[in-house]
Amino acid sequence: MAATATAPLAGIKVIDFTGVQAGPACTQMMAWFGADVLKVERVTGGDVTRHQLRDIPNTDALYFTMLNSNKRSLAINTKTPEGLEVMEKLIREADVLVENFAPGAMDRMGLSWEHIHELNPRLIFGSVKGFNDESPWKDLKVYENVAQCAGGAASTTGFWDGPPTVSAAALGDSNTGMHLLIGLLTALLAREKTGVGQKVSVSMQDAVLNLCRVKLRDQERLEKVGYLEEYPQYPNGTFTDTVPRGGNAGGGGQPGWVLKCKGWQDDPNAYIYFTIQEQNWEKTCQAIEKPEWVDDPAYATATARQPHIFDIFADIEKWLADKTKYEAVGILRTFDVPCAPVLSMKEIAEDPALRASGTVVEVQQQGRGTFLTVGSPIKFSDYTPAITGAPLLGEHSTAVLSDLGYTADQIANFQVAHVIADPAEH
Ligand code: CAO
């Protein structure tokens, strides 16, 4: 909707047959980049997120508005013959159709990939499921945390003496949507050469696992050498035959940890992440006022440090005790120490730099005023997405149907028969 003539995806028509988070995150980004994204929703209630976790009565929830900006909405019962006919007309004209319903739902609706491909051979069909087609669990319905557990994230997240832990980051949902977006854009490029669309499928388990690539690396290393030198369990603890949870340890070759700063007793986020970069050891010692560690054989190499790495972190916390997280980072950055304050969501929401970059944006929303959302994390030199509000349920039903050639009488009859929702009902 906010697309300008120069928008990268201008002219691309997307049928957004998605709900909750994984699919909507994908199509929202297409809309930001200029595609005409038409969200097709159930007549009663629409996308479930419109109603989930509402903060204002009778107003679409932030869960919905933050994943469906820049789209249009058609509320139509696709299980009626008339609704299915509308869908088929839309499919004939579209470039992309994205869905993330429960396994088998598209087939049950009469919209199998084969049928869609027959209706419009150029159309690219994007599909999100919990598991891929080879999985014994391919019939399961899946939400975020289910995927994090099945994709290897939960077993490797948290502390060794606690249970598997899920991440707050939407590794199962939005991450899968971003993977699907890559697939769809690739298929659009392929279509330039072949003239034919294809089905692009991404499973949430696979998308999570793709982000847990280094943990599979660690599994292979563990099987070969029996230990993982960068994990807190080394060298004083024990390893089993599977990758353990490493707490806040750095995942690469650079040890790091979350360290307390001034005020941590009262502020749950008065911490920084501190990285000991091997090639920066000398400057790191200067930064934390421990110049004697530079040449001390017990400290001078990563191998020498590892057996007492937590004593080292404890000493660094002593240095941090009279510094706020911002003061600490202010000092450490001048010594090239890779570090950052642990930022709360409140701090992020108020951060002027994130606002200036368009990463956090305030958006006008009908019936709500404004709301804060995460804008595009992808920055182009020649294009800046303009983030607009999310559509009301069925806001564009009449316009879409009339563009498809339906008369005012036919549209009125659709309303009476509940094929489309009556806007007065919203
Ligand atoms: N008109 C008529 N019927 C419609 C419709 C429309 N416009 N849009 C959807 N429906 C129907 C579907 O056809 C389906 O009907 P059947 O079950 O009779 O075939 C029904 O609505 C429910 O679809 P659903 O997929 O939304 O079902 P659900 O709420 O039971 O499950 C979810 C939700 C997310 C668990 C499931 O969709 C799923 O596993 N999706 C794949 C994985 C995924 O994307 N999960 C992440 C979601 S983000 O956390």
From TrEMBL:
One of its GO terms (biological process) is oxalate catabolic process. SUPFAM superfamilies: CoA-transferase family III (CaiB/BaiF). Its EC number is 2.8.3.16. The keyword Transferase applies. It is an enzyme of class 2 (transferase). The keyword DNA repair does not apply. The active site is at D173 (nucleophile). Pathway: Metabolic intermediate degradation; oxalate degradation; CO(2) and formate from oxalate: step 1/2. InterPro entries: CoA-transferase_III_domain (IPR050483), CoA-Trfase_fam_III (IPR003673), CoA-Trfase_III_dom3_sf (IPR044855), CoA-Trfase_III_dom_1_sf (IPR023606), Formyl_CoA_transfer (IPR017659). Keywords: Transferase. Substrate binds at G252, G253, Q254. PANTHER family: SUCCINATE--HYDROXYMETHYLGLUTARATE COA-TRANSFERASE (PTHR48207). Belongs to the CoA-transferase III family. Frc subfamily. Homodimer. This is Formyl-CoA:oxalate CoA-transferase. It comes from Mycolicibacterium rutilum (Mycobacterium rutilum).
